[in-house]
Here is the input.
Amino acid sequence: MKCFFLFVLLACVSGAAAAATNLPVHIVADSDTVFRKQSVSIGVNYGSDVLFFGRTGPIKYPYASTDVIYNSKSGMFVYGSGVKVLGYSAPLDEIDLGGGYLYKYSKNVSGSISYTRFIFDKNAAQVIKSASSNDINFKTSFNWKLAKSSVVFDYLFGSANDYFVTLNTSKYMETNWSVFDDKDYLSFNPGISMIMGTQNFVGRYSYDHPDKLDLDRDRRGLFPGEPMPFPNYNNGRFNVLNYSFKLPIAYNRPHYTFEAAWKYSIPVNVEGALKNRREVFFSLTFYYIFF
Here is the structure.
């Protein structure tokens, strides 16, 4: 029963909201396992800060999100997500809509292709993600028994155009004992990842939202009202952007999972007005699946 539930769950959602595209504000369809079964999953998520392809804004943006995903027997899926940045006036800061297809090459190799549209409220909190409005995502996963690895390609376009390659490796483990009864168990899925890509979205965010960079004025020795300098950074260069280590711990029962996850992020090759630093992110996720 554990394996059956896991297969269905992985085909429908990924825990802690960042599995396929590093977009950390909604649960997305996952292609690690392709299970041909019609299902609907609903999830809610809390995150301590918005992390977008290895970059964060000048201040922390804790958020909550809710998601609905429909998977068909053919492998097609559609999903929608609503995101609320906590502490801001907009009822919903962002709505994400998308769809795609789950496919399988062989017993140990599977993948997905998807498109996501990001729609931001005009009064939304200006998170770093708002510099891009579209994402085309390709993912291929390899199960080599000792662990599971994936290669993810993303092309983002809108106010800024960027492309990314993300490498992930994780090791799934679950307990052979129950917590409360014979229908529950704990699972662990520690992993490491590396993000490579361009970062034109950083320069675009800095240009569109100079007011968000006022926190740097004192450190830079600028007078009030003096414009922030924008050096000619080479944000279009393809480079390593981030390394991260993640530890998700989940409590599982038939049909639903509750997960807590910690992620340690190490940004590298930071260019632009944003000064990212190493940070620990925390998330809580609950998702329920109907099948």
